[in-house]
Amino acid sequence: MxxxxxxxxxxxxxxxxxxxxxxxxxxxxxxxxxxxxDASLDASNEILTVIITESNDFYNNDAPVKVSDAxxxxxxxxxxxxxxxxxxxxxxxxxxxxxxxxxxxxxEVLIGDVLYTASTIAPNLVPLMAVDTNRIEPAFGGDVxxxxxxxxxDTPGEENYYRVRxxxxxxxxxxxxxLYNDRGLDGQVFFRPLMERVLxxxxxxxxxxxxxxxxxxxxxxxxxVQSQGFGGSTPFNPKGNFDNxxxxxxxxxWTSSITIQF
Amino acid sequence: xxxxxLLSLLLFCGWMIQAQDFTVSxxxxxxxxxEELLYATVSVEGTTIGANTNLYGFxxxxxxxxxxxxxxxxxxxxxxxxxxxxxxNTDLDVEMGTxxxxxxxxxxxxxxxxxxxxxxxxxSVVTLDVAKTAKIPVLLGEKDVFKTLQLLPGxxxxxxxxxGFFVRGGKTDQNLVLLDEAPVYNASHLLGFFSVFNSDALxxxxxxxxxxxxxxxxxxxxxxxxxxxxxxxxxxxASGGIGLISSRATIEGPIVxxxxxxxxxxxxTYADFMAxxxxxxxxxxxxxxxxxxAKANYKIGKNDRIYISSYFGRDVLGVEGFGFDWxxxxxxxxxxxxxxxxxxxxxxxxxxxxDYGFDIAAGEIDVDLSAGIFDYTVKQDFNYYPNPKNKVSxxxxxxxxxxxxxxxxxxxxxxxxxxxxxxxxxxxxxxxxNEQKIxxxxxxxxxxxxxxxxxxxxxxxxxxxxxxxxxxEIEHAEGEFYNNYFxxxxxxxxxYLLDGKSxxxxxxxxxxxxxxxxxNSTSGTPTDVWIPSSPQVKPVLADQxxxxxxxxxxxNQYKFSTEAYYKALQNVVDYxxxxxxxxxxxxxxxxxFGQGESFGIELLLEKxxxxxxxxxxxxxxKVRNKSEAINNGEWYSARQDRTHDLSIVGIYExxxxxxxxxxxxYYTGDAVTFPAGKxxxxxxxxxxxxxxxxxxxxDYHRLDLGVTWIISDNDRFYNDLNVSVYNVYNRKNAxxxxxxxxxxxxxxxxxxxxxxxxxSISWNFRF
Lengths: 262, 767
Description:
The complex is a heterodimer.
Chain A: H1 2-16, E1 20-24, E2 35-42, E3 47-54, E4 56-57, E5 71-76, E6 81-84, E7 92-94, E8 104-111, E9 114-121, E10 130-136, E11 145-153, E12 161-168, E13 172-181, E14 189-199, E15 203-211, H2 213-226, E16 247-261
Parallel strand pairs in A: 2-16
Antiparallel strand pairs in A: 2-3, 3-7, 5-6, 5-8, 8-9, 10-11, 11-14, 12-13, 12-15, 15-16
Chain B: H1 2-14, E1 21-30, E2 41-44, E3 50-52, E4 58-64, E5 66-73, E6 80-86, E7 90-91, E8 94-96, H2 111-114, H3 116-119, E9 125-128, H4 130-133, H5 145-149, E10 155-157, E11 165-167, E12 175-179, E13 182-183, E14 188-189, E15 194-195, E16 202-208, E17 222-228, E18 237-242, E19 246-256, E20 260-269, H6 271-278, E21 285-300, E22 304-319, E23 322-340, E24 343-362, E25 365-387, E26 390-410, E27 423-437, E28 442-456, E29 459-464, E30 470-476, E31 481-499, E32 502-513, E33 515-518, E34 529-532, E35 540-553, E36 558-575, E37 591-607, E38 612-626, E39 636-637, E40 644-653, E41 658-667, E42 671-672, E43 677-681, E44 684-688, E45 695-696, E46 700-713, E47 718-726, E48 736-741, E49 747-753, E50 758-766
């Protein structure tokens, strides 16, 4: 909970001017490496990307070890099985892969003799309609900034899941895990803010990502576990849709975006 | 069933009454203010017969016809002896003066009162002298009864500088906090750093860690019974204090002398003003709380008295369009009626609410989120004094809870009030208990409470599958009692005197808790939600047994006690991993249930007399939980499991005017879950965890020092200056530890220490 965090910090700073943050060395337990599968089918760009790695110890800052000898297969509901080859960077990729919304897709990853399987239902594309902006001039000086609000119309009669984010000046993703769903709001017009401030001169690409339920639920857990500390949840390992104890997830997404130069 | 039980108990006690006995009864009061003295001792000289005043200062003693000398004693007051010739039932109100010599404040207490800790049947009970808390140094000089309690065995603070507390390993929602009998649902201000209780308005604080008497119910771990002052009956008086972050003011006086009085006490912080002085960054920031306590009472004739008391407090925290806002409100109306010399009655009508929420305003968009709990209570208590060997209490309570679910209001348009469906529940209790002196050495307090809890329609009950999806909806009509729970709660405590100065005590209690606070944070935030028990959420059931040894020595200069306890909890409610909390209409689907247990040994050595007073308190304990959904169903340490908890408190009176005080606390760090590994998803770092709560925060310790200088103290004007330093040696105690990446992409553990060494000053006055 960002707000709580800010207020507690503000409180501590005001009252004591004595709070301090520092890096400490802790004696943490080591753990056996676990398989991590980060698999996303980008329906807009027709690309499936599967990154398979092993988890590291917390204080090990080497790049994660890639697993490049896996056998990866994407199975569609219509009966087509597509083998996913590994590229030079150790990433499994296929392109020009078109999906059928509402169909089930299964990803199979065979490492050694262990088979990891995840399935999901492809979502429909919901387009981003508009972005409302509101120019704020702080009363007591400071930089002019903008508040922004994304609008879209939920598709009635089906479950929809969304993720909203911004790409600031073509690079940094802003607000990585703003997730929404249409439970109790089926078919309604959505207005959702991009929480971050945008300054005059910034270029922002506002993205409305239509995602499947698996991605939504998985990233909700990731968001919960990352906001540790104040108001955060008890730490746990987010459970994706892979079986056999693999970390990570397999999801399908559509991206609709509007870019504004402020 | 209940009538039979009650009747047989009354008959049993009635049987013991002698024909030639008469009753002396009345109130015990402070001579200067007319405030009633609670739990004071009344004894008959030359015998072991005695009684205590009740929660309203009333006592009743039935004695053989003839001459007796009654000895009235109370801590800090001159003992008073009154000779009576008892030829008929007699009224005797007694006023007691405070000890004239400041230095000997605690020396003048009579033996009977001094030994009370050893001889009474109370086990696991802490009574706090509110005046004494003023001298103990605290964070930012805001004296706080909760923080003094945290320095005693079995009571632990919930976080650095926090006023929330864990009693014998119980979570904060397992504490029943009563202010003039009204339940207070969120007893903290500013996200937990201050308690809502303004010490200036308080008369008496009693905490039951175990051996909870039958008159109390509804929470699993403890009861904190706080009584507000009634107001000075004799003369008008004003008092207050000015501190670094807040100021307090109290005015009290007689409406009609010796018949009725009124007290109004207020407090407000001004941290936001201060902040703006320090830095421009806090323009547009609101950050304050305020409290208002008010109470009036009036005696109607000899046997009746009416009290109305009220508390109102609110927190407002806001930063540029985001804001939190929450508060409690209580109103208690009471009628004390002396039916006859042996039977005292109190009738209370109570209202209590707690509402909380936040507000996000961004340009033309304004989203409000709010929730709350509203309580309407009627309560009847009787104290019956058949003879000096028995004191019977019985009564009933009926409490209607109304839960306002989390409600969104968008641009002040949606969700009109009529759309909000409150969840209603009725909680009832009846009880009977007897405090009985079996022999000169053996005293027992035994009783039974029967509680019930009913969910009442209109309500749509939802049944969930394992994927947390609604598979069935059951409509309940308006007024339908669609779910009922009943609880039998036996209560027992006993004291056996080994000799005049030592005793062993034993207690057992069973408590049901029908309300649950869902919290996924360490500090109490307004996003915590209260929910009722329901068909899916079973009530928490707690059984506790405690055994104690009490001993006073060196002419009562030192008091020692040790207690061992074991507490078992069933149906403990918690969020499942990754629960969706905020505004979730299907919150019940996100819960997991389990069991818990806590056990430990508490030691307390107090020095109560002389220039140097203070105590050493130590607790060795274990708190653990078990749930199928967590940690593969294995036992795991609860967050509040603190193996060692040590407090040393000392107050040294250099002269009657100047006193020094210090406290040092040490406890084992909380049980927490640190990452063992890490991985990346979508380019973001995700920590990998192994076992729940298998790691420890660094150990906590801190020294606070203070000095109080009484500048003047006479009938016309009293004022003192209090200077203190919190965390003198600037220990960086970890409030949180975050695991993230630095700019180089390396993972690291970052500690946040909230409070370094903080000096503070406050000036207090009374005239």
